[in-house]
Give the backbone structure.
Amino acid sequence: MVALDHVNLRVQAGEIFGLIGYSGAGKSTLLRCVNLLERPTQGEVWVDGQEMTRLNKRQLQSARRQIGMIFQHFHLLASATVADNIAFPLRLARHRNADVTSRVNELLDWVGLSEHAHKYPAQLSGGQKQRVAIARALATRPKILLCDEATSALDPETTRQILDLILRVNRELGVTVVVVTHEMSVVRRVCDRVAVMEAGRIVESGSVVDTFLFPRHELTRRLLAMDDESEANLSAEVAHRQGNRLDEWPGRKLRLVFRGDAVYRPILSEVAQMTGGHYSILQGTVDVIKDVPYGRLLMQWFGDDTAVAQAIAALEERGCRVDVLDDTSSLPVADSPRPLDDASRQQGSVNVGAGAGGDAG
Ligand SMILES: Nc1ncnc2c1ncn2[C@@H]1O[C@H](COP(=O)(O)OP(=O)(O)O)[C@@H](O)[C@H]1O
Ligand SMILES: [Mg+2]
């Protein structure tokens, strides 16, 4: 059986990259290829300019010190204190005792667990356990952090806190992060780019904003539909309900999607004025995903077909993506032809760039 097939993945240094898909898609297997916990039968794995599959045992050991990893169920040593758990990789790497102590204290402080240093994992909450695991993963100042469903066992509030910590790992320490998850909300919150996986393949990849606003693959749409806040489908019911009352007016229902600077410009009033048209907004969101502003509106544009067509052209000229919705349709999700941004196209390769490296404290 083949767990991964024709997977080409390029993670840039300094970014947070998401791997999303349902259970069994091959996400963990792909993630474990990065540090060679899983050795692919074919293909290459490049990390920070090194081809991992060609390293000897000793070289691999040292390369792995550059790669931290955290898991859904934390994998802490139950019989060791918080401090000893964090010290573990440092002792393995034969750091001096004094250095171990100062590094552990630094990390405890950085993840906010200084008072819990001498407790055992069983005495901690799930979120605290994951903080310990993150501190342990950062102990040897890795350049890369791999997160396998790191928040999947946590409640929503704790999930937010751990995701904020992962953002700090990336921003403050310059660590490149790869996040495996089955939740779009996790991707939306922390990732810059994302790859969607199904049956051992990547079916779609790109920037998170584009993937959210213009999903191309059916699976991506399904994953988005489970995510409350994404509004992949502005409610068809609203369109229908409000649409019926609007039927007495001439006009068309439009779905507008825009991003970046377009959010701040007075596009709607400009176009309405220019074309002598009118509109009403039925439903919509203006928000930000990872620093990129976007808008998504469901609206009625009033007028005859010529006037509406003129307005659509003017909106598109201003960078809006416009879909015309007929009254009977449930709302289609846009499927614009976005170019794949994967640079590497050869068969089976994983390439992870590395950030500046961990420097906690
Ligand atoms: N080394 C392997 N060789 C072949 N198949 C594997 C291997 N490891 C895992 N699998 C299978 O590959 C599929 C993907 O597993 P996994 O990567 O754990 O998916 P996910 O993390 O997306 O839930 C599963 O069906 C699993 O049983
Ligand atoms: Mg998994």
In short: The first helix runs from residue 27 to 34.
